[in-house]
Write a structure and sequence with these properties.
Number of helices: 6
Strand order of the largest sheet: 1-2-3-4
Distance between the termini: 26 Å
Helix content: 40-55%
Structural class: alpha+beta
Order of helices and strands: HEHHEEHEHH
Shape: elongated
Radius of gyration: 18 Å
Largest sheet: 4 strands, mixed
Number of strands: 4
Oligomer: single chain
């Protein structure tokens, strides 16, 4: 949605030739993310911050446990269908993701799709933090409604749409 709005404001004219400075129409992929299972939500509510170094960290972790308990009460069984989009504006590619990625995941998108990529979070909806397969239990993973591995699914789609709008579909 974000990419479509931006592209609508920057229409391509017949005299505009494709190239590195071209404005490309947006590409979009829908990604189906599985909700946390009942067991995962229960495990999140039982997580502890025993290794937390300070009181503030323990408080934030406890807040995450409370949010996880609220997730457990709502028990969503159906998957989340989210949109990942990219649009090329001149020499820059904007990639819109529907949540918050940990820094390393955003950097993975840039590493795979090119240095002129800007990852825009909180776009096309918001699912909170998107947990990776190996993300340890933290506030961010406790409050996420989706399963570990969701981040990798979004990253793969982001790289795909970014490469598509830059003309590097096979890399």
């Amino acid at each position: 949605r974000l990419a479509a709005l931006v592209a609508a404001e920057l229409p391509l004219t017949p005299s505009h030739r494709p190239g590195p400075d071209a404005v490309r129409l947006p590409e979009s992929r829908t990604v189906r993310l599985a909700p946390k299972t009942a067991a995962e939500v229960t495990a999140a509510t039982r997580a502890t911050a025993a290794e937390a170094a300070d009181e503030r960290t323990r408080q934030v972790f406890e807040q995450g446990r409370r949010i996880a308990r609220n997730l457990a009460a709502r028990r969503r069984g159906e998957p989340y269908d989210v949109d990942v989009q990219a649009v090329r504006l001149g020499g820059v590619t904007l990639v819109a993701v529907p949540g918050e990625l940990f820094l390393g995941l955003g950097e993975a998108i840039r590493a795979a799709a090119g240095p002129d990529v800007i990852v825009v979070g909180y776009a096309n909806g918001y699912l909170g933090y998107l947990p990776a397969r190996r993300t340890p239990p933290t506030y961010e993973t406790l409050v996420s409604p989706v399963r570990p591995g969701s981040a990798e699914q979004v990253v793969d789609a982001a790289v795909e749409v970014a490469r598509s709008v830059t003309g590097e579909e096979s890399a």
